[in-house]
Amino acid sequence: MPKSLRPRRSVLYMPGSNARAQEKAKGLAADGLILDLEDAVAPGAKAEAREIVCANAASGDYGKREIIIRVNGLDTPWGRDDIIAASKAAPDAILLPKVESAAQIHELEKLMVENGAPDTTSIWCMMETPLGILKAEEIASASKRIDCFVMGTSDLVKELQAQHTAMRLPVITSLGLCLLAGRAYGLTVLDGVYLDLGDDDGYRASCVQGLELGFDGKTLIHPRQLDAANEVFAPSADEVVYSRRVIEAFEQAEKEGKGVVLVDGKLVENLHVEIAKAKVALADAIDEMAS
User: Fold this and answer.
1) Would you state the pLDDT for residue 1?
2) How many structural domains are present in the chain?
3) Which parts of 27-92 are beta strand (E)?
4) Full residue range of the structural domain in which residue 241 is found
């Protein structure tokens, strides 16, 4: 089970230099917002974007939405200053791009601690290079602050010299390795973005594939993608009803000393109960966020 039970069905990238978009995001049905200082910001606008993003992250104006700041890499002219400012703003998480080693995480964490980042500010890792994928287990275990892997599939496809395909076979091994490492260390793992805003059917199919592979949610590039992600990555009403029945039946069987439980003619074991409890917990967390 992931460390966090917070819903992360939909996590939307927001350009760090676009103050208007970040203001409008306060009314969006996103589980999380990534305020982006990296790819979405031109070099000349980095300092101004940093001020906008950190002020918004510290404002407390985004309700129950999770706020994540994506900083520039530590090997860039802006990364260190981004991390110092983000630590003081105390977002829910700091997202480091192109993570390839435990050493990068240790350097990030050291800067966070030195600059007052509270224990509640976790570390998220962009997994988007071949070396990063190969070091997924090392990275996942590098710090107790690490809470989430974010797949950077666009960069990964480029680095692999592969192609974007409907079934994503060129990156399926990479996705699987990160899911394995993430699950082994209790992390949330978020699927990469879908780039074609004009292909609603393809986008929904990508969400469904992500759910089937085991992802907790999807990163998004436009608000129009929110509804499908929120629907696909949430347990359906029928699933929640069935899950509650499984839990109740198993608990009743335990009270009666029975070793075999059947629900709708299907054998129920401990693993099914764990799955059912996870679905109910997620549904409850989604309801709590909406209230």
Assistant:
1) 54
2) 2
3) 32-36, 66-70
4) 237-290
